[in-house]
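Late entry, evening session. Most of the bench is empty. Finally got around to the prediction I had been postponing all week. Sequence below, unchanged from the version circulated by S.P.
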Amino acid sequence: MRIFLNDIYPVKKYVLQISVGYKRKEDSSMEEMQTKEKQIVYDQALYEKAYEFAKKKHGTQKRIGGDPYITHPVAVAKILKKEGYDIEYLIVALFHDLLEDTDATEDEIRSIAGEEVLQAVKLLTKEKAYEFAKKKCKPTSPASAKIP
Protein backbone atom coordinates (compact mmCIF):
# COMPACT_ATOMS: atom_id res chain seq x y z
CA MET A 1 0.00 0.00 0.00
CA ARG A 2 1.37 3.28 -1.05
CA ILE A 3 0.53 6.52 0.84
CA PHE A 4 0.52 9.71 -1.14
CA LEU A 5 1.22 13.17 0.12
CA ASN A 6 -2.32 14.21 -0.77
CA ASP A 7 -3.67 11.54 1.55
CA ILE A 8 -1.61 12.79 4.49
CA TYR A 9 -2.10 16.52 3.96
CA PRO A 10 -5.79 16.59 4.96
CA VAL A 11 -4.95 14.69 8.14
CA LYS A 12 -2.14 17.13 8.99
CA LYS A 13 -4.44 20.05 8.26
CA TYR A 14 -7.12 18.60 10.56
CA VAL A 15 -4.60 17.95 13.35
CA LEU A 16 -3.25 21.49 12.96
CA GLN A 17 -6.77 22.93 13.18
CA ILE A 18 -7.48 20.94 16.31
CA SER A 19 -4.23 21.97 17.98
CA VAL A 20 -4.67 25.63 17.02
CA GLY A 21 -8.29 25.54 18.24
CA TYR A 22 -7.15 23.92 21.46
CA LYS A 23 -4.52 26.59 21.89
CA ARG A 24 -7.14 29.29 21.43
CA LYS A 25 -9.30 27.57 24.00
CA GLU A 26 -6.32 27.48 26.38
CA ASP A 27 -5.66 31.19 25.80
CA SER A 28 -9.32 31.94 26.40
CA SER A 29 -9.30 29.97 29.65
CA MET A 30 -6.14 31.74 30.77
CA GLU A 31 -7.66 35.17 30.03
CA GLU A 32 -10.83 34.16 31.85
CA MET A 33 -8.79 33.02 34.85
CA GLN A 34 -6.80 36.28 34.87
CA THR A 35 -10.02 38.29 34.69
CA LYS A 36 -11.43 36.32 37.64
CA GLU A 37 -8.22 36.86 39.61
CA LYS A 38 -8.41 40.61 38.97
CA GLN A 39 -12.05 40.61 40.08
CA ILE A 40 -11.13 38.76 43.28
CA VAL A 41 -8.39 41.28 44.05
CA TYR A 42 -10.80 44.16 43.33
CA ASP A 43 -13.53 42.57 45.48
CA GLN A 44 -11.07 42.03 48.31
CA ALA A 45 -9.91 45.65 48.19
CA LEU A 46 -13.49 46.90 48.08
CA TYR A 47 -14.47 44.69 51.03
CA GLU A 48 -11.48 45.91 53.05
CA LYS A 49 -12.36 49.54 52.27
CA ALA A 50 -15.98 48.94 53.29
CA TYR A 51 -14.90 47.11 56.46
CA GLU A 52 -12.56 49.93 57.50
CA PHE A 53 -15.30 52.49 56.88
CA ALA A 54 -17.89 50.53 58.90
CA LYS A 55 -15.37 49.91 61.70
CA LYS A 56 -14.50 53.61 61.85
CA LYS A 57 -18.16 54.69 61.86
CA HIS A 58 -19.19 52.20 64.54
CA GLY A 59 -16.17 53.39 66.53
CA THR A 60 -16.44 52.49 70.19
CA GLN A 61 -20.00 51.15 70.04
CA LYS A 62 -20.44 47.89 71.93
CA ARG A 63 -22.85 44.99 71.66
CA ILE A 64 -24.90 44.08 74.74
CA GLY A 65 -22.34 41.39 75.59
CA GLY A 66 -19.51 43.92 75.47
CA ASP A 67 -18.02 42.94 72.08
CA PRO A 68 -17.19 45.72 69.62
CA TYR A 69 -20.29 46.40 67.54
CA ILE A 70 -18.47 45.74 64.24
CA THR A 71 -18.50 42.01 65.09
CA HIS A 72 -22.23 41.92 64.26
CA PRO A 73 -22.05 43.24 60.66
CA VAL A 74 -18.95 41.11 60.05
CA ALA A 75 -20.79 38.00 61.26
CA VAL A 76 -23.69 38.78 58.92
CA ALA A 77 -21.26 39.23 56.00
CA LYS A 78 -19.60 35.88 56.82
CA ILE A 79 -22.96 34.11 56.72
CA LEU A 80 -23.73 35.62 53.32
CA LYS A 81 -20.28 34.72 51.99
CA LYS A 82 -20.70 31.14 53.18
CA GLU A 83 -24.03 31.03 51.30
CA GLY A 84 -22.25 32.19 48.12
CA TYR A 85 -23.47 35.77 47.85
CA ASP A 86 -21.54 38.36 45.80
CA ILE A 87 -19.42 41.19 47.14
CA GLU A 88 -22.28 43.71 46.98
CA TYR A 89 -24.30 41.65 49.44
CA LEU A 90 -21.32 41.36 51.78
CA ILE A 91 -20.92 45.13 51.76
CA VAL A 92 -24.63 45.63 52.42
CA ALA A 93 -24.17 43.33 55.42
CA LEU A 94 -21.28 45.47 56.68
CA PHE A 95 -23.27 48.68 56.16
CA HIS A 96 -26.74 47.56 57.25
CA ASP A 97 -26.73 49.47 60.58
CA LEU A 98 -24.67 52.50 59.57
CA LEU A 99 -27.48 54.91 58.67
CA GLU A 100 -29.46 54.31 61.85
CA ASP A 101 -26.64 53.86 64.37
CA THR A 102 -23.83 56.15 63.20
CA ASP A 103 -23.21 59.48 61.53
CA ALA A 104 -22.53 57.81 58.17
CA THR A 105 -24.24 59.57 55.28
CA GLU A 106 -25.90 58.26 52.16
CA ASP A 107 -23.28 60.06 50.08
CA GLU A 108 -20.45 58.30 51.90
CA ILE A 109 -22.01 54.89 51.36
CA ARG A 110 -22.75 55.69 47.70
CA SER A 111 -19.16 56.83 47.10
CA ILE A 112 -17.71 53.62 48.55
CA ALA A 113 -20.10 51.01 47.23
CA GLY A 114 -22.46 52.58 44.70
CA GLU A 115 -26.13 53.39 44.40
CA GLU A 116 -27.43 49.81 44.46
CA VAL A 117 -25.70 49.05 47.75
CA LEU A 118 -27.02 52.31 49.21
CA GLN A 119 -30.58 51.43 48.20
CA ALA A 120 -30.25 47.96 49.74
CA VAL A 121 -28.89 49.46 52.97
CA LYS A 122 -31.80 51.90 53.08
CA LEU A 123 -34.25 49.01 52.67
CA LEU A 124 -32.72 47.32 55.70
CA THR A 125 -32.60 50.46 57.81
CA LYS A 126 -35.21 50.93 60.53
CA GLU A 127 -37.09 53.98 59.37
CA LYS A 128 -37.71 55.65 62.74
CA ALA A 129 -34.12 55.29 63.89
CA TYR A 130 -32.85 56.55 60.55
CA GLU A 131 -35.15 59.57 60.52
CA PHE A 132 -34.08 60.33 64.07
CA ALA A 133 -30.40 60.05 63.13
CA LYS A 134 -30.94 62.36 60.16
CA LYS A 135 -32.62 65.00 62.35
CA LYS A 136 -29.98 64.63 65.09
CA CYS A 137 -32.46 65.39 67.86
CA LYS A 138 -33.01 63.77 71.24
CA PRO A 139 -35.71 61.12 71.33
CA THR A 140 -38.69 61.59 73.55
CA SER A 141 -39.25 58.55 75.71
CA PRO A 142 -42.86 57.34 75.96
CA ALA A 143 -42.82 57.95 79.72
CA SER A 144 -41.82 61.57 79.35
CA ALA A 145 -44.06 62.36 76.38
CA LYS A 146 -46.95 64.65 77.28
CA ILE A 147 -50.31 63.52 76.03
CA PRO A 148 -52.61 66.46 75.19
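Two things to note before I forget:
The two ends are 113 Å apart (CA to CA).
Helices lie at 5-58, 71-82, 87-95, 98-101, 106-113, 115-124, 127-135.
Will write this up properly tomorrow.
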